[in-house]
Amino acid sequence: MSFPSNFLWGGATAANQYEGGYLSGGKGPSTLDAITGGSHDSPRMITYQTKEGTIERVTRNQALPEGAIGYIDEETYYPSHVATDFYHHYKEDIALFAEMGFKCFRLSISWARICPKGTKEVNEEGLAFYDRVFDELLANNIEPVVTINHFDIPMYLADTVDGWSDRQTIDNFLFFCETIFKRYKEKVTYWMTFNEINFLRSWTQIGIHQNDSQTKYQAAHHLFVASAKAVLLGKKINPDFQIGMMVAYIPSYPLSCRPEDVLAALQFNREQEFYIDVQVRGYYPAHKLKQFEREGITIKKEAGDDELLSEGTVDYIGFSYYMSTVATATPENVTYVGGNQMPAVKNPYLEESEWGWGIDPVGLRISLSALYDRYHVPLFIVENGFGAVDIVEADGTIQDDYRIAYFQKHIQAMKEAITLDGVDLIGYTTWGCIDLVSAGTGEMKKRYGFIHVDMDDNGHGTLKRTKKKSFDWYKKVIASNGEELGNE
To answer: Which of 142, 265, 348, 470 is most buried (CB neighbours < 10 A)?
Structure first.
């Protein structure tokens, strides 16, 4: 058998894209509750209130002006408020996951549902909700895999202390971690600290009002310290906890064998590996320190920070893989296409999704091998999936053979990484195992799931759940522990 007998097959979601229940059960608002829907051609927007009291909008990755605060306009549709409503459908959804045979389910805990302001005040009703979710999962023999923080921050911390740019956010986060670690220590074994830590930027994700390099890297340092402290705290509460990090991994190939292009690819890959280096190796790599020196960036540390980073390293690397990209020293001479959170140089050897993402299953094997060769710790693919417009046929079926074909090739690449390259891979959770809101565009029509949810881009629909063709296909994959990849 290619895959270990205890391999964790499952699916992945995020609270702000799936859970809904906005302000239900004592939840406070988070930054992503103030971000609108969008589309491929129309970016998502942040709604905010200026110091002068006017209501303005900027695109989701921009900074807010100093003193601006998040604003929820009752006339505007915000996808996170309902999303696809796991809050009210969790039993139905978990039953469907169990029917597929999931061994695990990756979800995130909404910080603002546990600590409505992000401060040291606990909402018991929020804790009780996740108790019910974890109990339902465990009753169906599904292991919870929990992302502690997935792309948002309680709005109060963004508005009052400028989010992760302020060191006191570390203490508030650690209080949140301690609360959930103690509450769920008998229910959850697998944790990840921050989702796609290399993509954290702007007010929506880390609550900062300045997007300059000094602010972003200082905030990143606070995230690193918080992650290390969370690892050490979690191990004290339950030594059996497995606590990992999570990065968006996008391998970059040189556009040509021209040395300048090879160097450009090296520099691109270094930028994402930097975040892994700190959390796995426990120190800042030399090239990043040299960059700080060149650019005049000064990371303000407290005594003991370096020791914390060294001691609080993670147990495994969780990563998302959707695509590869291409690097060149002459970017003005190439064609750009869509990409995961960024534009990407077009690779002429790859097919692309409807959103322009290069489909590269061999790149997954390359990524697994590169990461394992470099870090020698277990790997966990916690996001991989294919966003597409699904057509509901007249008989109600959804024939998503394109999604099946995508997964077949990527799971085959995983097999080869394990059997030919010796990679220690502990699990695989497909992204958006049930339809949810796209983080990048805010759309519903960009669907990833094995389960269709009746909801459109404007928040209209019955929320009815329907199995797609890929549902039964993935069920067979899991039942055969990855050996049976045929689509019939």
So the answer is: 470
Residue 44 confidence (pLDDT): 95
3-state secondary structure of 85: coil
Integer Cα distance of 448 and 106 in angstroms: 15
Q: Which long-range contacts (CB under 8 A, 24 or more apart) does 331-334 make?
A: 334/255
The dihedrals phi and psi of 116, each to the nearest 5 degrees, come to -55, -35
Distance of CA 66 to the CA centre of its chain: 28
Alpha-carbon distances, residue 166 vs 120, 172, 220, 304 (angstroms)? 16, 11, 11, 18
Cα separation, 288 vs 282, whole angstroms: 14
**347 in the Ramachandran plot: left (φ > 0), alpha (ψ -120 to 50) or beta?**
beta
Helix ranges, 333-400 (H): 361-375
CA distances from 227 to 278, 288, 423, 439 (A): 10, 19, 25, 23
- pLDDT computed for residue 340 by the predictor: 73
Cα gap 434→452, rounded to integer Å: 6
Rounded CA separation 140/143 (Å): 9
**Residues 328 and 252 sit within 8 Å (Cβ to Cβ):** no
pLDDT of residue 2: 92
Nearest to 288 by CA among 267, 309, 304, 302: 267
> For position 487, what pLDDT does the model report?
47
Q: Which residues of the chain have pLDDT under 50?
A: 487-488
Phi, psi (degrees; rounded to nearest 5) at 45: -125, 150
Q: Are strands 242-248 and 190-194 parallel, antiparallel or unpaired?
A: parallel
- Domain residue ranges of the chain, discontinuous segments joined by +: 8-20+80-479
Length of the chain: 488
Task: Give the whole-angstrom CA distance, residue 301 versus residue 349.
Answer: 45
The C-alpha atoms of residue 144 and residue 162 are separated, in whole angstroms, by: 32
Q: Give residue for tokens 């695509």.
A: 323
Q: How far apart are CA 224 and CA 143, in angstroms?
A: 26
How high is the pLDDT of residue 488?
47
Encode 342-371: b = buried (16+ Cβ within 10 Å), e = exposed.
eebbbbeebebbebebbbbbbbbbbbbbbb
Distance between CA atoms of residues 393 and 86, nearest Å: 25
Q: What are phi and psi of 128, to 5 degrees?
A: -65, -35
Q: Does domain 8-20+80-479 have CATH number 3.30.300.130?
A: no
Residues 19 and 147: their CA atoms lie apart, in Å, by 14
> Distance between CA atoms of 37 and 16, rounded to whole angstroms?
13
The whole-number pLDDT of residue 40 equals 78
Residue whose token pair is 């004290």: 236
The residue to which tokens 């894209």 are assigned: 17
